[in-house]
Amino acid sequence: MNLLQTLRIAVRALLINKLRSFLTTLGIIIGVAAVIAMVAIGEGAKARVEESFSSMGSNLLVVLPGSTSAGGQRGGFGSMPTLTWDDLKAISAEVPSVRYAAAQLRTNAQLLSEDQNWNTSVYGTTTEYFVIRNWPVALGSAMSDSDVESGAKVVFLGQTVAAKLFGASADPIGQLVRIKNIPFEVKGVLAAKGQSPTGQDYDDGAFVPLRAYQTKIQGGLQQFIAGSIYVGAQSQAATAEAQRQVTNLLRDRHHIGPGTDDDFSIRNLTELASAQEEGMKTLTTLLASIAAVSLLVGGIGIMNIMLVSVTERTREIGVRMAVGANPGDVLAQFLVEALTLATAGGVIGITAGLLAAQRLAEQFGWPTLIRLDVVVIAVVFSAAVGIVFGLYPARKASRLDPIDALRFE
Amino acid sequence: MSLLVLDDVTKVYHMGDVDVHALRGVSITVDEGDLVAVMGASGSGKSTIMNIVGCLDRPTTGRYLLAGEEVSKLDRYALAKRRNRTLGFVFQSFNLLPRTSALDNVELPLLYAGMRTKERHERARAALERVGLGDRVNHHPNQMSGGQQQRVAIARALVANPKVILADEPTGNLDSATSEGVIATFQELRDSGITVVLVTHEPDIASHAARVITMKDGRVLSDIRQEPKRAQLDPARTVEAEG
User: Number of H helices and number of E strands within chain B?
Assistant: First the structure.
């Protein structure tokens, strides 16, 4: 007898007791649905976190000045300007695992267009900064090396700033923006970047080439960097190495002896992201264990009903054996029944789970992400549960003695 | 040619500490195309003979040849195949699958023989027509009378063109008029060349067989050839009786 015929017999047998078949699969349905819904929500949240991390920039390290204890004064990062322009040059020239390094100077200023004004962060930086942060322009042109070297009075606006000063759909390229009363020509509008993991709006900022920033906004060149250094490592894998090498270089350059604290600090955003990922993994493991437990319970339910079914249908098994079913045919029949129950439960569970996830997404505005591999795994696992828990009842059926089975009342 | 050969067959069942000797050396030979009745009181061993001849059980000692083939040492798979291809069963309690149409019930042996759907349907239909139930193919057992159910069971037994049909008290649950119709069907099958072995304890039923073997205490008591009484397959009468 071929598999299709076996399947047809199994389905027919299951349809005879529709309610019982449904109740039998309910355990698996609920388990699978719960897991699918939770995974969809979990994956959605994870995708949102990942997105916000990747929007900060790839392979990013941020070197901040401060954390000093020099002269008996102690303070955290930012409390003292300790990073020099030579430090920056050394980082980009001497550390092999670093691809780019750029200074980011920052101040707050009121920006004026012809008829609007907006208070925002004004940054002074160089071209590498936009590469490190993986941040292209949406309108106009990007900051060029000649902009930086010539000290050109040009400005690159974040999306939010551009919208506040010129309106959402206007083209501000070529217009003038006054920063601290000095006119800057808008040369580019940066692409939308979104929010940082802490909710800060990246698009609320304006960028000025470093030299112009130093001379026009900051008011003169300084020995120390009044801001931070953004470092882009060669690759994501190299960020830890880059962090170590930059730390050693700066300690060496700042003549910090062993046992003394750094006078700077380095934030490794990849590390932060992987810590987040770690948390997500724990959640996923938790979900997987819930799934395992619910499938186990569902499987036991199936085994229970299959055992009842084998007993109830002993006569039928005897008849089938008498007309020529061999033990393998009987085994296959009951195994396929259990498999069908479990797989149907899995499929119904997935459907219910997806619907639930969608509803939750609509209701609470949670992001959901349906992963095909999770769906496939859920089906495969429920099928496996059917086989594992169906095997014992099916074996029991196949080992029945046809004479006893025919006599069974 | 001898279709069934039992050669000094014994059967011992182990019931806890007690050994039950169901058969104590039985030798029977049945020729092709015969209609044999096996009689005897309960416990005489007639059901055990049925089970061994039907490849549902194996003898403890002795040989059993089915169509010239020694089957007493075959495994469960091989025995299933003999039951499927060479044998057909009719039981006292019909043993039809409930909530399953007559056609599907009759198709069952063909299903296990691995036959294609179309051919299966055709042959099952033909078998039902042969037992006079061509208009009941989609009826379920609970929609049919006892006589009709038993004729569905006969159709199931003959659908795979077996050499032997084994009937275990086939009329035990039927009234005498319906019984007569069922016996007539068996006689008709015998006339078409199928060997029929009937197990019964009713002398009236046995009188329709050409040969009557009587069992007692696991041994053959007598083995008589006789002129079989002809059963009447009167459609009008059976329909009325089954009303």
Answer: 8, 10
